[in-house]
Structure formats: structure tokens, C-alpha cells
Design brief:
The structure is a single chain. This protein is α/β, with parallel strands linked by helices. It is 29% helix and 28% strand. Strands 5-4-3-6-7-9-8-10 form an eight-stranded mixed sheet, sandwiched between helices. A two-stranded antiparallel sheet has the order 1-2. A two-stranded antiparallel ribbon has the order 11-12. Strand 4, helix 3 and strand 5 form a beta-alpha-beta unit. 40% of the residues are buried.
Length: 230
């Protein structure tokens, strides 16, 4: 079981959260232009790390994954890709340390809070904030990154207020927000958020995924380098 992209293949049979639109959005949207060292928190299958590496082959990427099976699958996906130098580490980000700080941190984090859990513990870990709260994520970003680092996230739109509160608490700023709509007439379901340690003007935009019977031109522009049939 897996997903074939233009330049790599992602197997995800042993990963709780399969390849999906959220991860693809973040991998295509995160700003890697000025990044040299990237930390991918909750790497899952390795999808986002592979996307970022395709976009910027010379960046150094460390992917952290707490689930043993997912970490093994990420290692396999990366070993069979064009970019075997991506480092995958099985570790809890809350206790992870690094000798060198990162200038970009990306995460498609667990975001379900107070929602009913299922019998699959790995899926619960991937989906629910019991394993990694937003505050824990911000602590990790603050501790493991450079003074001018950025944090890129994909989250439900209703999480924006909670993230904004944490941004203020830590003295960071929101530098980019993209509201993601499945269609033009529906409210935003997801938000792509960039948090900066340095003060910046926040740039806001909107992204629509579907138009008519196909993808919206803006979504095609963002993701055409990855989808096999786009």
C-alpha cells in the first residue's frame, strides 16, 4: 500500500496516518528558500521530508517519529528515494536534543482534542494531542531552533485561535496564514500557518482545492511538481 509521486514513492501500510492532502499541502507550502537545516516533527511515512528535499535538495533534514513502525517505514521510504541522506530518528520530540539548532521546523501534528478515540493506539498517537500538545510543540520549536527560525504547520481552521495565543505567549509572530477551502463556497477547513521568531508582517491568503470536476488552478500550481497525474 502506498502512493506514487512524480519523483518518489511513499509506502504507508505501517503508518497510522496515511498519505493525505494535509501532508501534501504542508510539504508544498512550507518556505524552504532560506532554510539550511530542517526538523520534521512527527514524520510519519516521511512524506513531508521527501517533498521538502525534492524542492531543495541541498538542505539537511532530520525527521523525528515516536512510533517504531512508522519510523521504520519512513527509513525505508527514504532509503529507496533519491535522498537517502534524510535522517530519521525514532524518538519523543519532548525529550529529543540536538547539538545543532534548526532554522525551519515543520509538523503535521496531532490535533484532535477531547474527541472519541478508537482501538488503534498508533492512530490515536498520530491524531490526538495527548501525545504532543500544541504547547509541547511550541516548547520543542523554541528549544531546538535558531533565533530567526520559522515553524510551519497544517491544522484545522478552528485551531488558529489557540495557536495565536501560544504565539503571543512565546513572543513569536504569525508571518503567513493560508486558509484552505475544499471548494470556493465552503468555509476554510484547514489553515497553513507559519510562525516566526522574528517580528514580521503577517501575509494572509486563501487556497481552494477543488473547482468543478477537477483541481483549482491555484492548487495545481502549488502541487503540480508532486502529483503523478497533475
Amino acid at each position: 500500500m502506498g502512493f506514487q509521486f512524480k519523483q518518489f514513492y511513499v509506502a504507508h501500510s505501517d503508518v497510522a496516518m496515511k498519505v493525505g492532502t494535509d501532508g501534501i499541502l504542508l510539504g508544498a507550502w512550507a518556505d524552504v528558500q532560506s532554510a539550511q537545516s530542517v526538523l520534521d516533527i512527527g514524520a510519519g511515512s516521511g512524506l513531508i521530508s521527501l517533498m521538502l528535499k525534492q524542492r531543495s535538495p541541498f538542505i539537511s533534514i532530520t525527521a523525528i517519529e515516536i512510533d517504531a513502525k512508522a519510523a521504520l517505514q519512513a527509513k525505508s521510504n527514504i532509503a529507496h528515494s533519491q535522498w537517502p541522506d534524510i535522517k530519521v530518528i525514532e524518538h519523543d520530540i519532548l525529550t529529543y536534543t540536538s547539538a545543532q539548532p534548526f532554522d525551519l521546523v515543520v509538523s503535521n501534528p496531532p490535533f484532535f482534542q477531547r474527541s472519541l478515540k478508537g482501538p488503534n493506539e498508533a492512530r490515536n498517537t498520530a491524531r490526538h494531542t495527548d501525545s504532543l500538545s500544541f504547547a509541547g510543540l511550541f516548547d520543542a520549536f523554541n528549544r531546538l531552533s535558531t533565533l530567526d527560525a520559522k515553524l510551519a504547520l497544517v491544522l484545522p481552521a478552528e485551531s488558529l485561535d489557540q495557536i495565536s495565543t501560544l504565539v503571543t505567549k512565546y513572543g513569536f509572530c504569525l508571518s503567513r496564514i493560508t486558509y484552505v477551502k475544499t471548494t470556493l463556497t465552503k468555509p476554510a477547513k484547514r489553515v497553513l500557518i507559519e510562525v516566526s521568531k522574528l517580528k514580521q508582517i503577517c501575509l494572509e491568503s486563501e487556497l481552494i482545492i477543488h473547482q468543478g470536476d477537477g483541481y483549482h488552478p491555484d492548487y495545481i500550481k502549488l502541487c503540480k511538481d508532486f502529483y503523478l497525474k497533475m
